[in-house]
Amino acid sequence: MAIERTFSMIKPDATARNLTGAINARLEQAGLRIIAQKRIKMTREQARHFYGVHANKPFYEELVSYICSGPVVVQVLEGENAVTLNRQIMGATNPLNAEPGTIRKEFGIELSQNSIHGSDALETAAAEIAYFFSGSEIVG
Ligand code: IDP
Ligand code: MG
Description:
Order of helices and strands: EHHEHHEHHEH
Strand content: 15-25%
Bound molecules: inosine-5'-diphosphate, magnesium ion
Helix content: 25-40%
Number of helices: 7
Distance between the termini: 18 Å
């Protein structure tokens, strides 16, 4: 298996409940290394770009408003098979459908407030990382 990098974001419902450390512990316990991290308040412009793939969906405006509603913690995670591994430990998009022990099952509230984002493929990971981090901010 290859060492990969993926993009992760702890969402406003989780930062509001002071869960950054608890979620980071799950990531690290699973073997992922946090090689970049910063807490930001996303602008609407950033959010619209970040979720651009969903621009035609009925929930797009709600999604953009939600992700701008409070602080998020953007991260770069590194590890073996990091993209797929991170999606596995995050769990299904809707916390109701997520497997026990996953981050979304343990911490998520509902479909929008599902605590964490993770890239769905290597290509999207590279694009999402580059959008939020400069090379010098990533220390592997
Ligand atoms: P993912 O986060 O598991 O990759 P996506 O389908 O890429 O899921 O959707 C992005 C985010 O949009 C989800 O994490 C979820 O918070 C939100 N979302 C997805 N589907 C819906 C919906 O039908 N209604 C409201 N929000 C949704
Ligand atoms: Mg997605």
